[in-house]
Design a protein that fits this description.
single chain, alpha/beta
């Protein structure tokens, strides 16, 4: 499960792609329809993948966004989604730091396959199964097991647990978790984080033992590094 920024001024295409990625692979999508909004979101959040349209109604354009993103240390894979078919445009994009290039009109299944491939490249195969104490997260099947038994989690619960597991031992405040696990369009508040943490504890903690998710006032939440 990844947090993805989709930048495209064609709202119909943006809705189709975001809906497809949310339903098929349960990804968290932020959508920007112009360069200014995209630039703001790229500075505000950390993404696992960025999908960029080349031509946007307001500057910066897709290639400019990409160049600026890389110059500022952005490391997430970037897929350029555009109607430009000429070789010179493709070369320009790859020189700027794009990881893949899909032209419009596109086949939806091919686009999903390319996105999955980019996300796999950025993940170490040894981290496809995350574990601490008696809890195991399988990122391939999106399953959680406690002492070998499957635990049913809601999509948001899994996303939050996955993020904390990937940053085991590090504290995150509620707002940081909202920025990384919830979409920017969500109206969720820090209380939504607390409620999600509470549900995870109810499902995963062992009676009479410290919670798998620690809370320290002023620091935030973390998964215990056991």
């Amino acid at each position: 499960m990844a947090k993805i920024l989709l930048v495209d001024d064609d709202k119909e295409i943006a809705n189709i792609v975001s809906s497809m990625l949310s339903k098929l692979d349960k990804h968290i999508l932020d959508v920007a329809y112009d360069g200014q909004q995209a630039s703001f979101l790229l500075k505000l959040n950390q993404y696992d993948l960025v999908i960029l349209d080349w031509t946007l109604p307001e500057s910066p354009q897709g290639d400019e966004l990409l160049t600026d993103y890389r110059k500022n240390g952005g490391k997430a894979p970037v897929l350029m989604l555009t109607g430009k078919l000429d070789v010179a445009s493709k070369i320009s994009c790859f020189d700027a730091g794009v990881d893949d290039y899909v032209t419009k009109p596109f086949n939806a299944q091919e686009l999903v396959a390319r996105i999955r491939a980019l996300l796999r490249r950025s993940v170490n195969p040894s981290t496809e199964i995350l574990q601490t104490s008696d809890i195991e997260l399988d990122l391939r099947t999106m399953e959680v097991r406690k002492k070998g038994q499957k635990v049913e989690l809601f999509q948001r619960e899994f996303a939050l647990l996955e993020f904390l597991f990937k940053h085991k031992g590090r504290y995150f405040k509620s707002q940081e978790l909202l920025n990384r696990v919830w979409s920017c369009e969500s109206e969720a508040s820090p209380d939504a984080v607390r409620q999600c943490i509470s549900r995870l504890r109810a499902k995963l903690d062992n009676s009479g033992e410290p919670s798998i998710i620690q809370t320290v006032q002023g620091l935030g939440y973390r998964v215990r590094d056991i």
